Amino acid sequence: MLVYDVAGAGPAPSGSETTTLGPLFSKAILKTGYRCNNNCTFCHSAPHRGCEASTAELLRKIDSARALGAEMLVLSGGEPTIRRDFFGLLDAIQRAGMAAGLVTNGRMLAVAEFQRRLLAHPLRWVQISLCGPDARIHDAVTRTRSFFQTLAGIENLSARDDLDLTVNVVVTATAMGSLGHVLSRIPCPSRTRLKFSFVEPEGNALDGFSSVVPKMSDAARAICRALARASRVPGIRTAWDGFPLCLMSGFEKHEAALREDGFFLMSEAFEKDWYPVDDRHRGFATVCLECSLRRKCRGAYRTYLRIAGESELRPRYRRVSNSFNLIRSPRPETLILSRCDIRHGRRPPPDAIRGLLVASCGGKVFRCRIDSADFSDETLETSIRRERQVYRLRPKNLLPTDFARDLRKLSLHPACERCPQHRLCPGLFRPARNHRFSRARRILAKELSRLEGDVLDVGCGTAPYLVHMAKAGKAGQLSYRGIDPRPASIPLRFGSFAKFEKGSIERLARASRRIRERFDAVLVLRAMAHFRHLSASLDALAELVRPGGVLLLADDVVFGVERTAIAMERLEGRKMPPFEHYRTLSADEARNIAGRIAGMRLEQFYSPADTDSTLWLAKLRKDSRGKNYQDP
User: Deepest of 89, 125, 333, 600, by most Cβ within 10 A of its Cβ?
Assistant: First the structure.
């Protein structure tokens, strides 16, 4: 049964989240080089020491960042403040019409002359790294006598009320036991954001992994205690980074990686160009496929999972959204692809992941943005760039009730696929011709019309696909049983071969090994998202399939819907039903799970590209002798 759960559609019901990202994506972070006046035990940039970008190269990147739409440019390193051209770079940022920001260890900010010169520049955002609450811990991590200089730098900047200041505590094994005392070192809590970041196991941290990198779950618990303690201090803002959401229960909304801080571009000192910020250094465990938070979670550091394993991760279960909104800008633009202003650098592109261009009539285009925090950049990149799941809603509709009738697919213009700027620009999407989900309907009809014998339809809803089995049913070749928590009434024309029962997948799964009855086909059509425990439920349903029988799975991937700002206001003002989905799988994840169901062999898989829709479909078969395909 298809349920449309839209992110950002009114108040979040109990047990679900509907959140938006706060800051606009307007910041670019520029790594100037990797020389540093500290030698931190955790430094992930240590392998690049000696690599320094030239002044000319940095000036070129500053100008190109402005052309790409950056409104603030943040200098980082290494340690950018020890460069001789540091103030010249700040001048260049100001000349380019951007605000300036800084990621630093804060030591140079303790020098009076440096601080005086810095005050002359319009610095708007600074993040200072603090490695512990006292000199013993901090200096043991930085491997220099740096604590009092860093603390003085924090004190000097905290006096400025025109500055967004973050004190970032890198959580190492050395510092983990003292996180609760860090707050006492913040001179002006009401003007400071306190952030805790789990150490990334790269660079120096790999040289002494066991002594530098704490157990991730222990670090998460320590940070949660520190965040709870800080929440009692009036005015202070808190944040964290570097953990999967399952370990930060109760503090999920405090996550602050680059995206939450408003960054959309990044360039390393050794790179020649700008790139969209990404989380490719983060990854997931097998158990994450079960988790309801998978679509919004960044995962854990890949290197940590490789070294320490996956045993600390636990799936969380709650009902979540399965779609996102593309909010259209109020004013159209003119864009002629044959002489595209974006391709030639005369106009900034939309955000590469959280934006796109949508064609309207008369050569006009609208910029669209995605504000929802219910989906990670990785999920959105898969949905938009790989699976191409972007749709225009039928006029005057707030929600689609019939996908074929209410949704029209938006397809990427062929010229954009070939464009050299496609890495930084999502491209122009236009309505597809004659797209009415017809291919998906044909594939479903073909597979269902081939069925014979006893058929069990789990989560059948109103049994919209029963019509494709009617011919075999009326000929006495098929007997249909539908199970649903809210079963519908059987239409009279199907009454001779079909019946509905009230029941849930959980109850059916518990009883599957005791039930002697088996079926020639078990169907789970657009109902898998309602399974709380996915793998266990699918294994239980596979038990109900007779040798030689079929297990047919189908569901929708995450998709986006274009909406105007006025439509969003109408949607947000409407009382929405609670979310009903526990998770939404990507096509690759669905294929992976289907291939691991005990006793079944994946015979056919249709991706959304094959069905030309939101739908994937997997056909599995049990060996005619009852062989378990998972056995060696």
Answer: 600
